[in-house]
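Standup, Tuesday
Yesterday: got the pipeline producing structure tokens again.
Today: sanity-check two examples.
Blockers: none.

Example 1:
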Amino acid sequence: MLKRIFLSIALCAGLTTSINADHANLHPTHAELAKEATQEGTEAFNSFVERAYESARMFSPFATVMPEPVNNTSVDFELADQMVDYAARFLGTRYILGASGPKAFDCSGFTSYVYKNFGIKLNRSSRDQYTQGEKVNMADLQPGDLLFFSSRSSGRGRVGHVAMVASVDRENNTCVFIHASTKKGVTYQKFPDGNYYSRNFIGARRILGTNLQP
């Protein structure tokens, strides 16, 4: 009789232990629930932030104003030197609006004439030339690169003048460009000048080494 009682107690204890274990598996502890909720909350928050950032980027009024890659194109320095030497032949040539050489130039007529001599076709206006080639930082300028400026006629912030880099001084972070000036004709100009050209500078573009070079 006692043996049966002990056997019944043992069976009940085993059953209770099994039920408790199953119950624990079906019902996690508060710590486990809290951990799971925290993890889900973190993932949900990160997903929300990512979606919000993407939405803001897509619908921002500046969404189409994307930074252009900095130019890392390799320049043919021998060709660049030849272009600079060729451009120097026209020093002193007078400025006439709409003229494209060789007896007179306007700014874009001069740059397009120089490039054309080396088989590279540039658009006729300075504004259209600004859409060609690739953007380049001032710190990476090389001879042959084009510099663009606003002018009195174009209005501030709009391209109205173009020049070609003739030489670069890395030590002083300056350059000299050659251009068709309204007052002096084809001439050299140091840049930055801390004056007119510094105030009206818009950007620089590289043509050599891009798909515009044959």
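Example 2:
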Amino acid sequence: MEVILGSPRGFCAGVVRAIDIVELALERFGSPVYVRHEIVHNPFVVEELRGKGAIFVEELEEVPDGQMVIFSAHGVSPEVRHEADRRGLRVLDATCPLVTKVHLEAIKYGGQEYTILLVGHRDHPETIGTSGEAPDRTIVVETVADAETVEVPDPQRVAALTQTTLSVDDTKEIVDALRARFPNMLVRNDICYATTNRQMAAKSLAEDSDVVLVIGASNSSNCNRLREVVEAMGVPAHLVNGPDELPEDAVVGAKRVGIVSGASTPESLVEAVVAKLEPSSIVARDVIDEDVTFVLPRELRD
């Protein structure tokens, strides 16, 4: 069996920044440091940080007054920020800068009385946070069917924004359906570079593999999109978060196994899956180079 390792894979700049924020906060301020929501969607990352002293909560009400809280890479709504201020919580913001960009666009177009059609998954933390910037003017559009039926007060003042972790192809279908109904719609496609690059890598693997393994967590949006991208090309794909989750029959009979990982997946999990497969050879498939970095919050800069 030959393993083809797709690249880029694994941590993106936003995930690196978010993890660094938690680790540096623990080093400089000591425990406890509270983190609202999983800092990134991977249980191995969360457990490692928990072992270092981070306390993960879902709501601010679980954080004692006056304590430090870190907002996850997915971002939060203004309502959450206001609650943190009211209670005197010390906030470190690990929101990915690319997510912050979408928030700023929502503020801009909401203030200009546009109806914002937010293309994304309704229950995803990123979508919830972005919607909170202009809740009375935002409608979440999840599917092409939603796009074909959504009603807006003024068809001439519509702006479409996108969740950063979506499938490029699925998003295009939804935006095309919206544009057909609202030809003057403003479109701000903010699918992040890391999501786009990893989907390119997944497609490249699908062209030459009998099966593709996507290494990542089941609650990771970008990992699920990678699996869907591969399956859309007619190639079997399995989403696994480590060697223990690998189905026994996943690679039976496969001569070439492609492997890619999501933007919140540690490389150690990829290495562990490869080791379990015991391939006769490993081939690197580099699709595009990434050299993006994001600065830390000023509270943590040297």
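Quick observation on example 2: The mean pLDDT is 96. DSSP finds ten helices and 13 strands in the chain.
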